[in-house]
Amino acid sequence: MGFKYRYLCDLLEDLESGRAAKVSAATPKDNPSIRIVSQWFTKHEQAIQDAETDRVKLLSCIFPEKRTDRVYWLREKFLSSIIGRSLRLGSTRLQELNRWQSSGNSDLACCAEKVMRQAENPISPAQELTVEEIDCAMEMIASRCRFSGPQIRRNRSAVDHESILSSLYLRSSSRDAKWLTRMILKSYAPVVFPEHYTLKKFHFLLPHLFRLQNSFDGALDMLASEPINKFPPNPDSTSARKLSAIAMQHLRPRVGIKVGRPEYYKARSIKHCHQMVNGRRMSIERKYDGEYCQIHVDTSNKYSPIQIFSKSGKDSTADREKVLPVVEQALGLGGPDCKITGRCILEGELLVWNDEDCEIMDFSKLRRLLPRSGVLMGVDNDSPPQPFEHLMIMFFDILMLDDNICLAKPQRERRLLLQKVVKRISGRSDLAHQEVLDFGREDSYHRLERSFEKAITQRWEGYVLKASDEPYFPIYSTGVNHMFGRWIKLKKDYIPGLGDTVDLAIIGGSYVSRDVQSLSQIKNLKWTHFFVGCLLNKEGVQADGSIPHFRVIDVIGRHCMSMQSMQYLNQFGEFYKRSPDEFEGFAVEYGHNGLSKASDLFKKPFVVEMLGSGFEKPSGARYFTLRFPRILKIHSDRSMEDAASFRELQILAENARAAPLDELEELEEREAWRKRLKVGSQPNLSIERASDPEATCSDTDSSPNSPAPRIPCAPTASEDSYMEARPLIDCVVDDSTQKGYFAQSRDGPSNIPLIHVDEAILPKEPEIQNCEESVLVNNINLASHRASSQRDEKVPPQSSEDYSFPAEWLQEPPVPGLGVSGTSSLIRAASSISMSNTRAQCSQDVRTVGPTIEPFSHSLKRKLFPQSPLTTIPLWTPETSFGSFALPETKGHNKRDMNSNSLQQFILQISSSAAAFGLEQSNPYAAAQFMKYGIILFNPSMTALGEEMHRVVTTLSTLANHEVCAVATAGKVFFLASSMLARDLRPDDCRFCLRETWEKIGSEHYYGCVSWDLRVSSTHSVMNIVNGISMPKPPVLADQSLPIRSKPWINISFAASDVAVLGEYTSIDPPSLVQDV
User: Signal sequence span per UniProt (predicted)?
Assistant: First the structure.
């Protein structure tokens, strides 16, 4: 008999009625959809489990969108004509049916229901439709479409669409015909089934099996296999866990059926990504902008051993025939070196490679090489492929190798196995770029940030983070949390403020009925889609008031804007709408033939700020526009002249897609992205559910009690920028006289210092960067670049609002001499504060009962009255004299003498016990770690940063190798622009105790840092090779009693976040702290 279709329509009708209650549901348990589905399965469980019920066909009717192998090629207009002829409608009722084409009316399904209700035909029980009949009819219709899967097309039916559909509509009630129409259109919207729960009600293992075999046939075949067919469909939770463990031992993928993909989370900032990783070891893989493919190999099939499946699950082998020889060569099929003896499943990304430029080409180039069911689509305006352009495949995972079920293996083992199976062929096949990062390290946050900066600068699409020690699917492990086995996607357009944005004009709208039900909350809905246009004659419009001429470049709908924006455009567009046939306010042309036509134009176009994931060339177009555009804001105060013109948009696209030409340009861009990344890393960001149907995770599933990650106070350099252990002379010195000096010290191994130069420039290739390329001597360009960058920012003198402190903090009288810009005034003010006064103040502060203050470090808490670091840390400036807010001024030296003697005094002062005592009052955590700090203020327009850093490194190296000089075992010297003295600041202001203050200072005035650590043993190598990835080993702190003359590590870095360690406090109590000021 089969399963009656009206039972399914009962469920759909109840789900549609329960949509209003779903919005107000507080928790998933309160979701009415869950309750409705549960009740429906309880009522029809016996019929569902009946032997006469074809559960594959039932599932195909419940989830029509999952049948990607079926393409009906039926849209609303053609379907409405079939319905009209099938029901033999007269002109009046036919007009009622076609009202779906007019704005403000329901979709075709609702119109069909209304028309059929006017003359409802009684359906006898013997004539009632079953899901089996409907599914067979759908398969016959799909078999006649060339875009359906090859298995469907093999059973091509000779019956035409109209005769098939006529029999279905004539045997349906008006209500059932509504849902039949939506099934044919492959969307039950606004009804959305709770997929996981619905599959689980069929059988508790079905959600996992459907992911393993992304096909209803394959998943149900596994349910019918031994011993799973003996399991009850819905056991209690305890039994379900035990039975699941047994079932996992028998689950294996099948060649010829696509394996599903893991769920993923979207990282909304570096901080959010770091938190989701939660200390795990991760494989960070480059996300390529290509076309996903899953390759199935069966060596026993002599005629067609290779099958290629697309992301949707459709068998696309015939369309990918150009890449089949590449797959055969990469896997060595038929050769002696082939590692595949039976079957294999791999994953990769199809790309276009350019042999002349030796680079991967844009995604749009794929259209010319990848047909759709034998048809090249959207290539009318594309140039033909060149002989040096061809397909390549980038492999990134292996899921099965013969009897080895790789899905259950951790990612690191799968990667190693992939390296053995796949042969790299230049420009034809390769392995995805990978970095391995242990997020348990203190500097992991900084490393991820640096690596992501590199990815953005090189115009990569983003990263995919996969846990190195976790399997492909979490179903192979028990007792794990919600993050286990989930990937994390990190893209710049996921992070607020980092995507590509541009102001564009909305010049018209149109009405598409299939979106009406999803926009039911919009009052007076007139338009569902809107037309984005750019002026072609912007200069003429601005100069002499010429008639505007727009080119429509894109059409956006409900997925590209919020409901508030949709309501705004519909509400205010009503005042400006004009008919395109009658309106002469501006001319309109359409960018390509694939764009639909606007039903109404807006006399006054709306100017909107749009966000995109880069720029792309649309199918059939010759221009670039935003990829995945979304409206961020509607500017009601702007006119169409304020929006980007067509020429300006193309210039923006060209600049956004162009990678930096040289290292200096790359450095400048990386610094800009670093600032933007820090702005984007804000807490409590709202995370949207992934839109991909195969990626359904969101942060709403996160546990509120999960521990927050430790964000390091002083992150170290990125792993990609570590250099070989080389003598100081080889890495920094570029002067012949100084080379002679250091050549003498190289005779003895104990006198060879080691240096790590981190220029914040990650190499483009994973190889270790050449040391000679990192010389900093006479690097005037670096200082001038930073200075020009700050000039562009036009930073004004700091106002009281910039640091956002309470008003009572800002009402203290200024210290005399500190309101004037310049280093001299700074030193004069500094000389008035002696070390004796500082010590007395420290003693008094210790005796004072102050508020409890939280240091930034989690491991050290003190109840002390903190002092500003500017009153305790030695300070030196090359332009004038040696001194500090806390240390006396040294006079009588000219500039040349200061460069040697005074600088040595400065480094020795940093190492003194007096400086250590002062540091305890301002930076107790650093003092407890035997760390010393110093600050150098310099004018980049007068002094080259490279020269000054080289001078500090040279002096430090000389003192470190000296027999009697007691240099601090570990320390940092920060280079800040003397322009910070232009701010009306007080050196003893407690605001300088805060990390937030130094982060802001660093973003505007920081240039670099020279740090050293003499406690590192010389027997440890710089690099640690992990899974083929070069990673720096963490410093090994030796006993403090070791001689000071141990071989030093010297590090030069340029990360603005480094200077934030000068502030160790996250909050202080203003009233208590200022009482003695």
Answer: none
